[in-house]
Q: What sequence folds into this?
């Protein structure tokens, strides 16, 4: 190499070192215009459309017990018609939350649903109470005090952890009679679900269960026909037998129950807060029953389509879709040499520490962009009600 070339290379190297030293010492901010950055499909753009007003009139919280991103991936892989958008793309906010309980990385439904209903993290088996047992005010109690209608639709038994967290305050779900009594003395306007373990310890017989509920609710027939005229404004309930509500093939199914609930809530001349729970996925995942999971996902997507349709037409409804925890450690996977055929793999028959989906659409959805923990959902939902109070005062 000629001497002048060596000198020039050395000078260039020294200049580069000096440049980086300058950047480091004086903290020069290197910035690029946004057009230089290539976004990956999962990048959150924070471009949430604006709705009529920032605050929703109505809130629908849809909780799927036991659903993680593995279940979601399976739904997208198995139930997406070729090249068509999925129902999940209708949500403007698509994020996640960590559902851990105050006890540690794992949660049960009682603790996670309580966090989402009250805004406070709590311990295993705690329904509507904090870790010391202190009663926590839930979303529905605050909503009722502000003259909202409130309702629960579940494909599980009505004293199950998730629905109970939105209406009762107790240590666990074993005392069904106590939770039923609390439901009957609450301000709840609608409850559709099942009975389970009838006649066992602290679980009343069917007749007694209905008698307790009748203290507050007009008991609908299993045909779900709503009362006419002035009775339309009175609280309504309907209860089915254990496992009577299953997937789309059962009568009734979750979409049908949700449709009737939306008809009832939408006809009230006031705002409403409605919980829709699908528990089917948790039971199926505890048994690692892949076929039952796929059927459950069909039911969830059909119910979701109905809910999103209502919200879109209504224009003043926030829909928050989430899960209380993941069950089964499900993965849609394939081995080398077996591509592209998918197999469903399970890693446990229990709950996992996985983060779970949190999706939102409608007025107020933008608040859910940065959620990290389950209790933040409860805090946000409550704060949206508070704003409603200020508006109406
Ligand atoms: Zn479970």
A:
């Amino acid at each position: 190499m000629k001497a002048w070339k060596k000198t020039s290379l050395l000078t260039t190297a020294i200049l580069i070192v000096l440049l980086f030293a300058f950047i480091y010492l004086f903290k020069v901010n290197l910035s690029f215009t946004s057009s230089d950055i290539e976004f990956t499909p999962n990048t959150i753009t924070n471009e949430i459309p604006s709705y009529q007003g920032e605050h929703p009139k109505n809130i629908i919280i849809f909780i799927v017990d036991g659903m993680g991103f593995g279940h979601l991936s399976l739904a997208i892989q198995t139930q997406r018609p070729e090249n068509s958008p999925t129902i999940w793309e209708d949500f403007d906010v698509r994020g996640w939350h960590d559902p851990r309980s105050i006890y540690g990385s794992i949660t049960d439904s009682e603790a996670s649903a309580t966090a989402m209903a009250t805004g406070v993290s709590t311990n295993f088996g705690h329904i509507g109470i904090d870790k010391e047992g202190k009663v926590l005010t839930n979303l529905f109690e605050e909503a009722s005090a502000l003259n909202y209608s409130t309702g629960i639709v579940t494909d599980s038994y009505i004293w199950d952890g998730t629905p109970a967290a939105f209406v009762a305050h107790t240590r666990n779900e074993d005392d069904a009679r106590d939770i039923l009594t609390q439901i009957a003395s609450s301000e709840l306007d609608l409850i559709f679900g099942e009975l389970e373990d009838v006649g066992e310890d602290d679980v009343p017989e069917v007749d007694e269960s209905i008698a307790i509920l009748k203290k507050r609710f007009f008991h609908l027939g299993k045909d779900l026909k709503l009362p006419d005229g002035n009775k339309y404004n009175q609280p309504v309930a309907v209860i089915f037998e254990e496992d009577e509500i299953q997937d789309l093939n059962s009568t009734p199914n979750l979409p049908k129950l949700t449709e009737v609930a939306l008809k009832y809530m939408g006809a009230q001349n006031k705002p409403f807060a409605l919980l829709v729970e699908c528990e089917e996925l948790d039971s199926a995942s505890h048994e690692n029953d892949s076929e039952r999971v796929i059927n459950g996902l069909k039911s969830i997507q059909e119910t979701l389509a109905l809910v999103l349709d209502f919200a879109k037409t209504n224009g003043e409804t926030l829909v928050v879709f989430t899960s209380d925890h993941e069950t089964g450690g499900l993965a849609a996977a394939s081995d080398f040499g077996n591509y592209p055929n998918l197999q469903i793999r399970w890693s446990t028959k229990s709950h996992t520490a996985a983060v779970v989906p949190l999706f939102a659409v409608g007025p107020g959805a933008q608040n859910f962009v940065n959620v990290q923990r389950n209790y933040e959902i409860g805090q946000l939902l409550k704060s949206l009600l508070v704003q409603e109070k200020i508006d109406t005062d």
Summary: Confidence is low (pLDDT under 50) at residues 26-46. Residues 66, 282, 286, 327, 351 surround zinc ion (CB under 6 Å). The chain has eleven helices and 13 strands.
